[in-house]
Amino acid sequence: MPLKHYLLTPGPTPVPERVALAMAQPIPHHRAPAFEALFAEVREGLKWIYGTQQDVLTFACSGTGAMEGALVNFLSPGDAILTINGGKFGERWGKIGRAYGLAVEELKVEWGSAVEPRAVEAALRENPKIQAVCVQASESSTGVAHPVREIAAVTAKTGALCVVDAVSALGAMALPMDEWGIDVLLTGSQKALMLPPGLAFAAASEKAWRRAEGAGLPRFYFDWRREREMQRKNQTAFTPAISLVLGLAEVLRWMREMTLPAIYARHDRLARAARAAMEAIGCALFAKAPVVSLTTVLSPGGIDSDKLVKTLKTKYGVTLVGGQDAAKGKIFRIAHLGYFDDLDIVVAVAAIERALADHGWKQEPLGTGVGAAMKVMAEAAG
Amino acid sequence: MPLKHYLLTPGPTPVPERVALAMAQPIPHHRAPAFEALFAEVREGLKWIYGTQQDVLTFACSGTGAMEGALVNFLSPGDAILTINGGKFGERWGKIGRAYGLAVEELKVEWGSAVEPRAVEAALRENPKIQAVCVQASESSTGVAHPVREIAAVTAKTGALCVVDAVSALGAMALPMDEWGIDVLLTGSQKALMLPPGLAFAAASEKAWRRAEGAGLPRFYFDWRREREMQRKNQTAFTPAISLVLGLAEVLRWMREMTLPAIYARHDRLARAARAAMEAIGCALFAKAPVVSLTTVLSPGGIDSDKLVKTLKTKYGVTLVGGQDAAKGKIFRIAHLGYFDDLDIVVAVAAIERALADHGWKQEPLGTGVGAAMKVMAEAAG
């Protein structure tokens, strides 16, 4: 029999069967009342997950399009921004900023570490011209959770906006936008929201919308003010990705049934189980402040993690990802965000144990990692 | 029984069952060999439809995102462009251009008419600084086909680029990019390509790519040079809309089976049938140079076309669209691009005859329009 396939990557993530079926429905017209009613429901659901009274806007693009929008809607040419660069996505803030002629100040953080809120505070004190602090809630290249709540508390005392990329975080962990004072919060469809890629979402605070009025950078497709005006009428400025919106409505209904506290508790349990499993088989964790969305692991015994990932794929049907750039060949990443449950972690850990043994690493009996994961799960079940 | 629903709008268009099922497959990871092989197949198929040796790039966005890319990748601040404005989409070129600080010269064309190539030639002669001529192959707000081939022949003699929005044209009619000398050709997924909205496509000529080297407008998400570099490796710069790409591969396989000449002949037949039907029931056509993708009809007897569209929807389950802006309340539009066949036109015409009678317009016996359409179809079948 050909191998069964298991997708365990931090985006795209598996799409639940009921969501796949919802997206296979006939496409309604996006200017018809039936779509408007659906979109109104979706807008409410997004506000609920965001924990905000602001509009959460939906865009047909990947998360990077929303990152671009998060800058071009609130800044003017030459404005200074502070970017937290401790991975691929933190680095991307700088690339976008420079493409638009912003003065980018990078706060470099060692890969695998989280930024210190004090360092952000110091940078803002040293350069009071900084208009925005750009950070990842989950830096998925390293598996690190940056302290978004603390950073928002720091920026709240200044004129700078706290701009948060929560692409691989929102829906996996609590990020109550209004309560924490996040100014711009964006995410994508293909992570904890359990959809295929193709939609991005963004909301902005009153402080950010006031800034938008004078923002001089050019924009059209990603003009959030136009979108807000249209989406308040349950329309989009341009043709939306209708099938994905149909899926999103189904996702949000299901998330309401599950409740947010239960969803967050599940993500926390899976993360703890994956970490316990890796430590039990003698693999060190790469992230010093690990996010609940994924577990990043240093490949042990000098094994090239890209080769390990290849073995997992070709011999066991398990798709994990390795490391990028500075972490290439050194780490592998186990995703557990979105449509993941206990036994998915069992699958991942079992395959990793087998693949490590194939590559000559076997310090503990097979099943040691799986057992450690199961113990965490059983304890959480009470 | 609740009404059956018939989608007869010029985007979104109906999605074939086999394509909907292809998109309901489990999502592959976009950096995995299986996706790369699929993407290579898609890239070849797009070149085939485009009639080009150039790369056809795929983006996660609506058609408007590709329109924006068609300007920001090839122009610099202050550059002059000529836009053909004879409808909503022609007008959009100007809006995008002004948002990016371009000097927009509009060649206004009466709604319902096509631009005269001589007028384009004259405008280019009068203002030799014009860097690009922006036009719609199908202006779907009016149902007009602009003479793209002739315009490309005019720009070829100058330094200006011929930039063509073929969102509601490509795949419905021949637009051989290389043969005609089109410099930038863009389209979207939700029209003749029979997919849900969410993907856009674009290709550029050598003349355009040379221009791209010095283009000074800012861009990041829509940076076509970065995308070309990545897509040549069967990757995308940012996460692609994977489920739609799965559907696209299925669409392209099916289009190869049908062959392009047969697809274009079918569109031509359906367009002639729809026009014959409307004329047979005493309704005047709105477009003086009608495109094969849709038939725009003046609402007869002073009937508000928005009310007619509402009756069609609520009483017969048929979704058509009315007019926008200058044509609001005056026209209705029958789509026949993509997954449409003879009997879809029969459905549309029968429902329109009934709805017109409901609104008091009944000059001919019921079935007169349907009969006229059927005659065209039968003659085409031979």
How are the secondary structure elements laid out?
Two copies of one chain form a homodimer.
Chain A: E1 6-7, H1 17-23, H2 33-50, E2 57-60, H3 63-72, E3 80-85, H4 88-99, E4 103-108, H5 117-126, E5 130-136, H6 148-156, E6 161-165, H7 177-180, E7 184-188, E8 199-204, H8 206-212, H9 224-231, H10 242-258, H11 260-280, E9 294-298, H12 305-316, E10 318-319, E11 321-322, E12 331-335, H13 342-358, H14 368-381
Parallel strand pairs in A: 1-10, 3-4, 3-5, 5-6, 6-7
Antiparallel strand pairs in A: 2-8, 7-8, 9-12, 11-12
Helix pairs in contact in A: 1-10, 2-10, 3-4, 5-6, 11-14, 12-13, 13-14
By DSSP, the count of extended strands of chain A is: 12
Name the quaternary structure: homodimer
Alpha carbon gap, first and last residue of chain A: 38 Å
Mean pLDDT of chain A: 97
Q: What report would you give on this structure?
A:
By secondary structure, the first copy, chain A, is an alpha/beta fold. Chain A folds into 2 domains: 17-257, Aspartate Aminotransferase, domain 2 (3-Layer(aba) Sandwich); 259-381, Aspartate Aminotransferase, domain 1 (Alpha-Beta Complex), CATH 3.90.1150.10. Chain A is built from 14 helices and 12 strands. Chain A has helices at residues 17-23, 33-50, 63-72, 88-99, 117-126, 148-156, 177-180, 206-212, 224-231, 242-258, 260-280, 305-316, 342-358, 368-381; strands spanning 6-7, 57-60, 80-85, 103-108, 130-136, 161-165, 184-188, 199-204, 294-298, 318-319, 321-322, 331-335. In chain A, the strands form 3 sheets. Chain A has a 7-stranded mixed β-sheet, with helices on both faces. In chain A, strands 9-12-11 form a 3-stranded antiparallel β-sheet, covered by helices on one side. In chain A, a hairpin with an 8-residue loop joins strand 11 and strand 12 (331-335). In chain A, helix 3 (63-72) crosses helix 4 (88-99), helix 5 runs parallel beside helix 6 and helix 12 packs across helix 13. The longest helix of chain A has 21 residues, at 260-280. The radius of gyration of chain A is 21 Å and the shape is globular. The two termini of chain A are 38 Å apart. Chains A and B meet through helix 1, helix 3, helix 4 and helix 10 of A and helix 1, helix 3, helix 4 and helix 10 of B.
